[in-house]
Amino acid sequence: MVANLGNDDPPTAKKGARGLRRRRRRESALVWWGGFAVLLGAAWWFGSWRLALIALLVWCLYQFLLVPTICRVMTRQGFSCREPARGRLFACGAAHQAVKNDAVWRLAGLRNPFRKPPDTSGERETGVLVVSAEARGRLAQADRALILLAALGTVVTIAGMIYGF
What we know:
By secondary structure, the protein is mostly helical.
């Protein structure tokens, strides 16, 4: 039996390991939330709904692309991946990104049109429980809620920009 045959987890950073990614220190989330508070305070002070829309758009961008988070894709063994990722739409590596893309398409109620069919040419024996792709691709409840809120905020921002012109 070959151990760890179906492992699709990216390597973690270790001392002395070459070619592996390092975990860099990230900015505090308080810096971002302070920036959002300043933008909303300025919008309230100046009475500008346009500035409030810009603050909402920046928050949506932050949630989609910039929030420091963890991957949270379920591995084939059934554990949640703990590798760092940037943005709720992104995962730690290419294999986990494909699973997360499928989950985001399912959140929208569609099938991923860009998904490659899985290779089922040979049944391999891994010796471990393998969790299905549908179960692995479920987004965490917090991620699901914040992605939907950010999508709604983006729609509101676009409608507000169109209405304002």
